[in-house]
Amino acid sequence: MPSIASIAAPEFRDRAPALAELAARLARIGGGDGVHDTPVAGAAVIRASAPSQPLPAVYDPSVCIVVQGRKHALFDGATYVYDPMHCLIVSTSLPITGRIIEASSARPYLCLRIDLDPRIVEALSSQVEEDAPGDSAPGRALLVAETSPALLDAALRLVRLADEPDAAPVLAPLAMREIHFRLLTGALGPQLRALCRSDGQARRVGRAIALLRERYAEPLRIEALAEAAHMSASSLYERFREVTAMSPLQFQKRLRLQEARRLMLSDGLEAAAAAHRVGYESPSHFSREYRRLFGAPPRRDAATARAPD
C-alpha cells in the first residue's frame, strides 16, 4: 500500500507531513485496538486493525480527525464518510451507528477524537464574523467538514504535548482553543456556531439529552425533560426530533439497549439481568427491541461478540 506522501492529490500532499507524524504518534499512544485516553485531557485515540461491523453508540460532542483509514457514520438514513481529508463534527450527544471500512494490521485505522466544549465555541463566536442566520431551526447536530492543514497542525501540536507533561497543563488549553477556532472559521463554522449557541434551541435540546443519559433507566416524563430544557413539551418534542432524528422515547430506548449490551459484554451479565438493570420489566419486550437494533437476540449477539475471530 502506498505511503501517505505518495498519494497523488496535491491537497492530500499538503497534509502529508502532519498526517504522517500524527499517525506515528497516535499509533504509539494507542498500542492496541480500542479507545485510549491520551495524557492530554479531552483527547483520545481510536485504533482498529480491521474493518468493523456496524455498531450503534452514542457519540458525545467532539471532532473526530482521522489520520489513517476511513469510517462511516450512519445517522437518520444518511451516511457520513470521514477520512484523512474529512473530519466528523458532533455538536451534541447523538445515537450514531459507526462502521470502520478501511483498516488493516499494516495500516490500522487511527483517529484522534477531541472533545468539543460549547463554552469555548460561544466565547470565540463573538470574535468570528457572524454570517449565519439564527437557529430557530437548529438542524442536525452531525457535520462533515474538510480537515484543513491548519486544523491538522493544531491537532499535531496538541498531540505532541503528550510528551511534555510539565507543559501540557499550560499549553493544552491554548491548543484546544485553536482547534475550536479552526472549526469555527471553516466552511461549517456558521452552522456549528448556531448549534452551540447557549440560548439556542439545539443547546436546550442538549440539556434534555443530558438528563436522559443520567436517568435513562427511569420511566420517561416528557414534562421533566421540557423543564430541564426550558421549553414547552410540544416544542421540545419537535426540536428533539430535528436534532437527533428520533423522539425522546426512542432515544431513551437506544440508551437502554446500548447499556444492556455493554453490561452483557463487559460485565458478563445474563440478558434478563441486563434488561432489568436498564429499566425493562419484560424480558420478551427487551429481546424484541434488542434484536431490532442489533440484528440478533441478546444471547446470540453476546455469544457472537465474545467469540474469537
From TrEMBL:
One Pfam family from the record: AraC_N
Claim: Transcription regulation is one of the keywords in the record: yes
Stored InterPro entries: Homeodomain-like_sf, HTH_AraC, Tscrpt_reg_HTH_AraC_N
Signal sequence region: none
Keywords from the UniProt entry: Transcription, Transcription regulation
Domain of life: Bacteria
Family annotation (PROSITE patterns): HTH_ARAC_FAMILY_2
Keyword Transcription regulation among record annotations: yes
SMART domains registered for this protein in UniProt: HTH_ARAC
UniProt domain HTH araC/xylS-type: residue ranges: 206-304
Listed name of the protein: AraC family transcriptional regulator CmrA
GN (gene name): cmrA
